[in-house]
Amino acid sequence: MSNRCAIPFLVSPFPDELLGSWLYRLGIHNHGSVIRNLLEPDTRCNLDKAQWRDIVQTTPDFERLLDALGTTYRHVILEHTTYPYWLRFHSAEHFDFSHLDSHRPLPLLILKARRQSLPRLRFLLPQVLRLCPVCLSEDFTRFGEAYLHRAHHLPFVRVCHLHRIALISRCPRCEQLFRMPSTFVPTPLICSCGYDLRQYRGPEHSEVWERLAQFSVDALFCKDSVEICGVFFKFFDSQLAERGLENRPELLALLSGIYGEESAKAILTQAPQRSDIYSSAPLALSSKREFRAPQFCAVLVAIDANFEQTRVRITSLAGVMATLHEHGSQSYESAAPRRHPGSVMEARTQTAEIEKHVGRAVTRSYLYRRYKTLFWYLTLFDQAWFEAHYPPGGRGATEVLPSIEADRATIMAAISRAPRPTVRVWKNLSQQAFFRSSLRDADWLDERKKVTARAANAEKLMRKRAYLAACVDDVVQAIRRSEEFSGGPIRISAATLAPYAALSEHQLRHLFNLNPEVLEHALCRISLTPRGCVGISSVTHAELVRESQGE
């Protein structure tokens, strides 16, 4: 028999309300301990640190909380988180929205490479509040209180799809950034500096951001069946092929002409959201196989397709793929061993297995496109048999094989012009030479990899130093802003600096814990010291350690 208490004042979630906003309002309308008491008395769940504000993996604690609130995990995930938006483009299996009361588990969010992706998209989930001033006013008039909308917290949605005005995430007066601190996320109407956010009207924006917002929101709200992610990837690839977008620079150029260069880089590179501005990471950090909902939406909007047209074409493609599957047609990708052949006979056997699984005679160019290691092994070590069974001609022809020295020169040139000293980057810049060297010049290639690793470590150290220097600048600016708007003495800590810094409170705690010299350098920069400060006190390193551990 459970001894959980009943909630005194149960408030229902508003339309399109984000989960963290609803939990915050439940806590406001009841005593602060009520939600805690809805869980088992012996639970060790820290509600503030659980981050149940958006997509949540099902746990016994969360299930017990929802049961006490009279709802289900399935309903909350589909109606009050951004999960449907991500599911629309990365479903592990076919999903029908009409069966909301079904006990069937929800599909996993996966990558094309078949890795579970929730931890990998965690940094793309909402970290910063995005508010529409008109929605704040209308919600307050209609319901008596404001709340956070899911539709405003999708990646790269900068405009309210209802009112066509820019969303705000920072106070226009004091420049305080509105972050999502924990599970319970408040919706500010009046900033702590006294500014009424409902009065603000954001800057002008281009029409393409309105279309991207509408496309993304339509994907979130659509209740039609969800197709598996393989269908979306095939559709996405076909759209790129129709427009001759064969590589990342061409795709980046397309998006840059529409969204701007910095925004296009951010869209393509999956960078974490540290502030109200989406930043970019080096292009080589993410491959096209890891594109998700933000990239699909941005590209499909860029080629002038609205979501309804896209949905119809996706449904048509899914039907074609289902028909092919019923007739037993399948790709060899899931069956063929991906490794270097151990001998000539093994290479010939792999070639025969490819033809068997493909179900037709394959061509030399097909092997060149899909199985480059096997192609080059046969070309280098079994050329007579290979040319007899797969005559050269067209793509894949090898009339003159480069020498080992020529391949080494090609690889060294790729290393010299690679934007980042990593194997993955210069391998892509010298693919064929790399494949040939891996088969006939492996010792030299391994040595190049080791040299690259050392260079990459050196660059990583330089980036860390530059990052810490930027953190010092950020902390200095945050201290000065907090002094300016506090109107009195302040206590320098992660909690007091977070509203005015680019890093969140948790990130600042982690930063000060691992790199206490950052705070020391910042204090020196503004002519302060940890001792003898007039009107200002700083947190000691030991206090920061205890604070970072939640004590």
Short key terms for the protein model shown above:
single chain, disordered C terminus, two-stranded parallel sheet, 551 residues, mainly alpha, 26 helices, 1% strand
Write a brief caption for the model.
Helix content is 52%, strand content 1%. With 551 residues, it is mostly helical.
Secondary structure elements and pairings:
Blueprint: H1 19-29, H2 34-38, H3 47-50, H4 60-68, H5 73-80, H6 83-89, H7 118-121, H8 133-143, H9 207-221, H10 229-242, H11 248-259, H12 261-269, H13 293-302, H14 307-326, H15 344-358, H16 364-370, H17 372-381, H18 383-389, H19 404-417, H20 423-429, H21 431-440, H22 442-486, E1 490-492, H23 494-497, H24 505-514, H25 517-525, E2 536-538, H26 541-548
Parallel strand pairs: 1-2
